[in-house]
Design goal:
By secondary structure, the protein is mainly α. It is built from 3 helices and no strands. Helix 2 runs antiparallel to helix 3. The protein is elongated.
Length: 79
């Protein structure tokens, strides 16, 4: 998705960013459900156990994505 936008030479517009972030969040939540079902408690990185579990890493990513969306909406006078 991102590659096709970059190849088109157009800048991401407001709706494009919203669409992309929603797709990212849906993908992360799907991965979170799969991880919870098939490998609960699995370390995200066995070399760096302090990074937490796969589930905690996805949770952090979702939180970061929400902060990004909040800032994006505020910057565009939507929130």
């Amino acid at each position: 998705m991102v590659d096709s936008w970059q190849e088109s030479g157009t800048e991401l517009d407001f709706n494009g960013v919203n669409f992309l972030m929603q797709k990212v969040q849906v993908s992360l939540r799907s991965g979170q459900r799969a991880g919870h079902r098939f490998c609960p408690g699995r370390q995200y990185d066995a070399i760096m156990p302090a990074s937490g579990t796969l589930e905690t890493m996805i949770e952090r990513s979702l939180e970061t994505g929400q902060k990004f969306m909040d800032a994006h909406l505020k910057r565009n006078d939507v929130a």
